[in-house]
Design brief:
Elements: H1 18-28, H2 34-37, H3 42-60, H4 66-77, H5 89-101, H6 105-120, H7 127-137, H8 139-148, H9 154-174, H10 176-181, H11 189-194, H12 199-204, H13 209-229, H14 231-234, H15 238-261, H16 274-287
Helix pairs in contact: 3-4, 3-5, 3-6, 3-8, 4-6, 6-7, 6-8, 7-9, 8-9, 9-13, 9-15, 13-15, 15-16
């Protein structure tokens, strides 16, 4: 029998430690330049990333009632704005960051809602449905990154949304094997059909030419969104420009990794080679002086 919403004891929720966060960043293939280049933001970024990690772990890895745990986390999260201080150490560390930067609860709540959605929605029919999901699973992270810098204008928000959506799509295509094992298909069924692929081939992990073509269409969409958002880096200065450029460029690297993996991506995660990650960081550093060179 499932626990009632919000009744999961806070003490039972996992606490990701520094080693867990480092391992998670390595799994995701996206170097978090902020932890190297922006020491003044390290504490704030660490607090936000730890929250994101906790939400994802509850939605993907928890052995118990994931819905109840996520709803309990939501109740505890709201204590960062009202009521007594939250007991969970991740939220206790997050609360002063929220207060210092006057962060709105909405992005945090949408991240939880995305993971609740993962518990009830396993197949997406159209790009529009997947884009809507990304407004919960991806764009809140970019909003929080900008909010820490006091950047809340509509244009930068639009560029940020494009980058974070592109990153989310690229990560999905890197992880098609793991997502299939979890019973999820993020590549829209309309895209499968448009390329003559079958859902049966997808669930079997059988790389037919039609399935490859459908996945390549997904990669093209991810690349398009990343390039659409790349002007965000040129709109800021200093280390933040390097960081934002690194996010977008690593997303493009992830897209290339999917293509380079060929049929292997249907069996295992497509990983960005270490040398490519360092080349991308160097390119972002050079782009700090010459933003016009950040393009593909």
């Amino acid at each position: 029998m499932s626990a009632a919403p919000g009744r999961v004891p806070t003490a039972t929720l996992p606490v990701p430690g520094p080693a867990d966060l480092r391992a998670a960043r390595r799994r995701e293939n996206f170097p978090i330049a902020a932890f190297v280049l922006r020491p003044a933001r390290r504490r704030e970024r660490h607090a936000i990333y730890a929250f994101c990690r906790l939400v994802d772990d509850l939605g993907d890895e928890l052995a118990g009632d994931r819905v109840a745990a996520l709803e309990a986390l939501r109740s505890e999260l709201l204590r960062c704005w009202t009521g007594p201080a939250p007991a969970h150490p991740v939220l206790a560390a997050l609360r002063p960051v929220i207060a210092d930067h006057r962060l709105d609860p909405d992005p945090f709540l949408r991240l939880i809602e995305a993971n609740l959605q993962d518990q009830r929605v396993t197949v997406y029919r159209t790009w529009a449905e997947l884009d809507e999901y990304c407004t919960r699973s991806a764009t809140p992270v970019g909003e929080l990154v900008l909010a820490l810098e006091g950047l809340r204008d509509a244009q930068r928000r639009a560029w940020s949304d494009a980058i974070t959506t592109g990153l989310q799509l690229a990560n999905m295509w890197q992880d098609v094997a793991a997502d299939r094992a979890r019973g999820r298909c993020y590549l829209p069924t309309a895209v499968l059909r448009a390329h003559g692929a079958t859902e049966a081939a997808w669930w079997a992990g059988r790389p037919t030419p039609e399935l490859r073509a459908a996945l390549h269409a997904g990669v093209a969409r991810a690349r398009s969104r990343l390039l659409e958002g790349l002007p965000l880096a040129a709109s800021v200065h200093g280390p933040l420009r390097v960081e934002l450029a690194t996010f977008a460029l690593c997303g493009l690297d992830a897209c290339q990794a999917v293509l380079d993996a060929g049929d292997g991506v249907f069996a295992a995660k497509a990983r960005i080679p270490r040398a490519a990650r360092w080349r991308t960081l160097g390119r972002a550093l050079r782009g700090a002086r010459h933003p016009e060179r950040l393009g593909p």
